[in-house]
Every structure is written in structure tokens, then in C-alpha cells.
């Protein structure tokens, strides 16, 4: 076949095509479908409709290639790949240059979503489509058997006949032919109450969002009337197709629903019946209709989302993002389909057409795409070289394994130290436990002593209670105790101040003596080092304590001067002064000791009073703790009662709410029933009135006819000269629906 004449209808060796076949072609006998042939010259152009095929015979063999793959030719187009059927002879190649196309008959089965992998997609690889060798045969009935000669029959075109296909067989590569034919699809979700409830809410929300003009509640979507269903369905169809017109050629709505759903692509339209559409509120029909309404809602939302989503459009004017592979594929598909659309139109119009006319945009797009790919490759190569350099740099460095091993050893030592530290902590914990045990024992003994002191206190209180003490004495004792407490507090505060002052004086005196001793030591050391004689005490500065040795004396006693003259009296006076000073200091110490004894005695009394007060405070604290425990227990009981009351209130509120909802539902149901009853009543009243009017009209007309006939009879009797006839017709005034007629002849 000439590569310029290869069409979508001739890509299948068996003549399969994705182009729909007119319904009139399906009425022809399937047994006579074969290759379309004509008598005539080589310049004839064939019709696009399927031709009547000759009958098949077993002796005729086919020379058409049986391969299932096709590829676009690249004799004059770089974007096609050449592939010639190996089974054609030379004459057959010349005859195949005549263009003819066969349309595929559309399958009447229901449509289902199919995977995109079943169809050829634009890509960078080979533009080839794999097809199955076995074409799907579609008979006119589910029980019809295909003719025996059709499955293995072939035709061989003659020298002066042209055809682009073999025996006519319906291709199974279309969207609808992938599904099993003559099957009624049923939705299994219509038996699930939760699914039905979710559909009701979804349809209800959609109608509310789109401004449904009629009154609508959830109850309406549970048991709708025929009028409600028709209004809802019409409103949804208007939302989907604003140009749809109802009632064309006097069709009823139930007659238009199923064809309309078929045209919209609804898969389960076979489950709908005309009787079900006339009574949609039945329990067996409404779930299926509700599923259909939910499908329409989903279809409208998905279509609007697709129209508003820029990533789902095929816009050749917008450059796709290099990071989005899906956008790249969509753009490539868009450019390729534009090229096919333009060239296919020219191909169908004439034999000689310029194929180079529409190639520059496609070549430019793929060249840009190639440049982008090359630039990306260069960028990746540069990045690869950088990564290799980084790898070499890291490899040249010393391995981190040795450092990790050293760190591991260090961590092991730290772990060992930590374990030792934990062992020490455990030992300390044991010691602390022992110490706590001893403290606990001491505390228990203290508690025992406290209980004994409380018992003694109780006994003392009983003894005090037995004494006859008047109120005035008791008040005096209390005032005296308060005064003593205040005096004790003041004395204790003064004692604390004095103690602090004494401590401060002691510190200062100690510091001063230290400084003096240090200074004396320094100067003494310096005098010793210099060989100086130490000076005399301050009151005896006029005395000279130096001793001069007279080496020229005859007697040893005379070698030293006499100390009894100056030095001894001075020493005696110094001793006397020191004794006086010591006596004065002793008197001061005695005074201070006396004061300290008085303060100690006062402090002891205050401590005894303080102990009594502490005992009273402990008793009051214990009583306070008991009161707190009682108060906490009472608060706990009150909280429990409050929680119980709140729970009962919540349950009562939930019960009231449920009752209110139930009552509202019942009121809505009663309102619906009331409206239906009122509508039926008005309809019956109208029918009765119309029937009565028709009956009354009939009676009046019958009465007029009787009067006319009677008058004619009277005239006839008078004209013939017969006996006189007196006709008295009396109509009583009280008769409303009957007439009394009295005739005398």
C-alpha cells in the first residue's frame, strides 16, 4: 500500500477501525461482508461507507498480511516509521493506492472506564500500535452465531479493483468493544444503607448549592413522588446541559430519560425501566434512580473541575514545565493531534497534497524539546562531574572508620564509668534507704512521745477543769499569758539582737587582735633583723632598760648595773597595772554572765511557753487537717452528685433532641401526606365536578331533544288530521336533578 494512503481504517490487516459505522450498515447480512471492490479505472474514489462484500469461498485465499502491528511510513515524513505488509503483490500495492475506508460499527454495550494503556499514546519512541490479530465479531443478537465462513474467509483484490481492507470485521480495539456485549450492569451498592444515605446527602447538598427552586428536604430524597423526581432530574440535566429542551415531539419525560442517559454515557441505564420512572418512590426502584442522580452530580463536578484545571488542558501555546512529565506528554500529544488533524483533512480532500505544509510547527516543537533534553543532559553531565570530584575528594580523605573506632572505645570507657557510677548510686541509694528507715523509726518514737504528751495534756486539762477558777481569773490568766508571750517575743527579739551584736563584736575584736599580732610580729621580726632594741612599754618610755656590761670591773657582780634602782620598780608598777586591768575585766565578765544567766532563764521560760503554744498549734493543725479531709470528702460527694445530675441532664437533653427530631420527621411526613391527600382531594373534587357538569349537560341536552321530538310529533299529528294530542309537560320547581313529564294522548 502507498504510505501516503495509509489511513486509520487500514491500519488493521483484518480491516478493523476505530471510526464509527452508520447504523444502517449493521442491517446488512453479516455473512456477505468482505472486502469492498468496484469495477472501474484506477482513478476512482471510493465512498467512506462500508461496501457490500462478496460471498466467501473456501478456495479463495487471502494475500493480506496477517501481522498485528502497523507503523507509520517515513518515505516523506521523518516522524513516521516505514512498514510495508509483506503479503502484498505488486499489483495489489498499485490497487491499494486507491483510498477506501471502512467505518467500525459501534458496540451497543454499556461503557466502562478503560485504562489508557489500551490506546496508543504520543511518546518519544516508535509510533506503532499493537493490535490483536483476532477481530471481535458482533452479531445482531446475543444468541446469534457468527457465520462459519466469516472467521476464516479472506478476499484478494483484482487488478482493476481497489480496497484498503480485507474481510469486514468489527474491530475490538475501540473503547466500547473492550467490554462484554449484551450485559446488564447492576450497582451492588444500592443495598447498602450507609451508601444510600451518603448519596442522599450528596444530591441534597448539590441541589442546595445550585439553587434548586422547589421545596426540598432529606425526606424528599427518601420517598420522592413522581413530580419530585422529574423536577430534580430536569434541574440536574439543565445544570449539565443548558441547551436541552424537554418535550420535543410531544415526548413524555419518562420516554426521554433512558435515551438521554445513554447519550451521557451512563453505564447502568439497562437497569432503568419506564414503569420504574413512573413510580420512582418504590423501595426497589428508588435506590437505582438515586445512584443515577449521584452519578450525574459526580459527572458535573468532575467536568467542571476538569474545565477549571489548567493541567488537564492541551494548550499548545503554553510551554510545559520541564519538571512535569505529564505536562510534557500532554503537550506532545496536543502537537501531534493538531498535525494529524490538519494533514488528515488534506489527505481526504485530494490525492496530491503538500505534507510539508504543517510539518514546521511539529518539527519546531520536537526540536525545542530535543534542545531542552540536550541542555538537561549537559546539566546532568556537569552535575555528574561535580559529584565525581566530590567523591574523589571524599575518597582522598582518611577514612572516618578509625575515628569512629576510637570514638567507640571512648564511649565504651564512658559506658564502663557510667556503670560504675550507677553502682555507686545504688550503694548510696541503699544507704539512703537505711537512713530513711532510721528516720522513720525516730519519727515513730517521736509520734509515741507525742501521743504520751497528748495524754498528759488531756490529764492536765482534766485537772484544770476540776479546779474552781472564775471567769475573771481565767481572763486574768489569759491576759497574763498574752502579756508574757509578748514579753517573751520581745525578749527573744532583744536576745537575738544582743547575740548578733556580741557575735559582731567578737568578730571585730578577733579581726583587730589578728591585725595587731600580725603587725607586731612584722615589726618585731624587722627589729630582730636590724638588731634594734625593743622599746619599753608606753608608760615607761623615760626608762632605759638597756644593760651595759662593764668588763673592767673587779667583781662579776659589778659587771652589770643594778636593776633595783629603775627597772624593778617599773616592772612592779607594770604588774600592778596589769592586775588592775584584769580585775576590771573580771568585773565586767561577771556582770555580763549575770545578765546572760537572767536572759537564759527568761529564754527557758519563753521556750516552755513556746512549747505549750506549739502543742496547741499542732493540735489546731491536726484539727484543721481533719476538717480539710471532711471538707474534701464532702466536696467529692457533691461533685459526684453534680456529675450524676449533669449526666441525667445530658441524657434528658439527648432524649429530648431525639424526640424532637423524631417529631420533626413525623411532622414532615404528616405534612407530605397532608399535601398529597389535599392534592388527591382537590383532584377528586375537580373530577367529580367535571363529571357532574358533563352529566347535567347530557340531561339538559336530552331534555331538549325530548321537547323537540314531542313538538315534532304534535305538528305531525295536526298535519295528518289525526286525533288531537294534548301534551302537558310540567316541570316542578323543586326538582333539581329530575324532570317529571305528563303526557295525555
From TrEMBL:
Residues 1-66, 81-189 are annotated as: Disordered. Residues 370-397, 422-501, 589-641 form a coiled coil. Residues 505-712 form the Kinetochore protein NDC80 loop region domain. Residues 161-304 form the Kinetochore protein Ndc80 CH domain. It is found in: Chromosome, Centromere, Kinetochore; Nucleus. GO terms for biological process: attachment of mitotic spindle microtubules to kinetochore; cell division. The keyword Nucleus applies. Residues 81-94, 101-130, 152-163 have a biased composition (Polar residues). GO terms for cellular component: Ndc80 complex; nucleus. Its main location: nucleus. Pfam families: Ndc80_HEC, NDC80_loop. PANTHER family: KINETOCHORE PROTEIN NDC80, KINETOCHORE PROTEIN NDC80 HOMOLOG. Belongs to the NDC80/HEC1 family. Acts as a component of the essential kinetochore-associated NDC80 complex, which is required for chromosome segregation and spindle checkpoint activity. Component of the NDC80 complex. This is Kinetochore protein NDC80. It comes from Puccinia graminis f. sp. tritici. The gene is NDC80_6.
